[in-house]
Amino acid sequence: MIAAAIFASGVANGACNPTIHTTFTLRMPPAIRAKAMTASATLWAFGMPLGLFGLWAARFTLAGTLILAGSSFLAARHARTRDEFVFAMAQGAGYGLTAAGLATAGTELVMLGAATAEIPPLGMALCAAGSAILVVSYAYKYRSAIAGAVDRVRNAAGSTLHAAFDAVNPF
Fold it and tell me: What is the pTM for the complete model shown?
């Protein structure tokens, strides 16, 4: 179960991170982009030691998922097309389930004096479901690009097999 949750999280990170970084980079005006990227990298570098403290990382993750869930539902409210609405609602549901999974750790997760917190199997299942919904939401958003890639792979595989059979066919 834990391995499946970690796998789903890795797949979701692979789908989400490029989009997040692209949006973060391109939304800034070119005039301030270099300074803003330097500032964010500096904050990231100073925040890395917090990764040694898993409980604090979980606290930040809980706060982040709640913020992202809220912003996703806000985006759904302002969506102009059905596709934007479906994508934003799926994102909100995925982040909401992840936050719910983390929240199953109980009060130890949010109490500053607590030294440990344990996420029960139900919480891990909720986190995995949230990650799966996030992956599916990106597959929905980029379905035409995925279909094109599948077609290219299928055509390349067919051409390769045809060439291989032609190479060994003595007739």
Answer: 0.59
